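[Discussion] Sanity-checking designs against the backbone

I'm trying to build intuition for which residues belong where. Below is a structure token string of 177 positions. I'd appreciate it if someone posts a full sequence so I can compare it with mine line by line.
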């Protein structure tokens, strides 16, 4: 069964992972039909296990061994990714806003992050939907809003990763092949 693996914190802050190297390392670790999507830590593969938690641990270990950094990933099944993309709750206006999906390896901590966000801030639109937090933010503000600053705190680094909805759709297209 196909799986989507979203890497956290690659190709930023000195952690460089090239797509070809990523595919090679994961292939050598025993994963099959490894496909990378864009250069932002998105992988579609066929795992040896259907256990998402075990898959995450196995991929994280392969990344630590292959690239020498503290790796964190979120595993999503393609069907769930399709549901997430289809359920984006805010009007799409790609000229003015970035549509994001915030994924987490721990839904409880994602709920905690959402609860800490200030809904009165006005700049961010947020909606928690179980294992995903939908976020819409004005272009040019995705690192400056109250939620962006909250989500960037070190305590969330091992748990969350954010993808633009357009990236999610591109990953889904590869996962659906």
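Best answer:
Here's mine. Compare freely.
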């Amino acid at each position: 069964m196909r799986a989507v693996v979203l890497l956290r914190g690659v190709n930023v802050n000195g952690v460089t992972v090239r797509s070809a190297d990523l595919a090679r390392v994961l292939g050598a670790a025993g994963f099959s039909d490894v496909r990378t999507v864009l250069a932002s830590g998105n992988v579609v593969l066929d795992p040896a296990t259907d256990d998402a938690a075990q898959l995450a641990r196995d991929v994280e270990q392969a990344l630590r061994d292959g690239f020498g950094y503290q790796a964190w990933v979120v595993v999503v099944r393609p069907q769930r990714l399709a549901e997430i993309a289809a359920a984006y709750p805010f009007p799409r206006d790609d000229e003015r806003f970035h549509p994001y999906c915030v994924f987490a390896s721990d839904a409880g901590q994602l709920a905690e992050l959402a609860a800490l966000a200030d809904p009165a801030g006005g700049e961010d639109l947020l909606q928690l939907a179980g294992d995903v937090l939908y976020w819409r933010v004005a272009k040019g503000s995705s690192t400056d809003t109250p939620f962006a600053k909250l989500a960037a705190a070190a305590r969330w680094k091992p748990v969350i990763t954010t993808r633009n909805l357009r990236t999610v759709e591109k990953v889904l297209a590869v996962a659906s092949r």
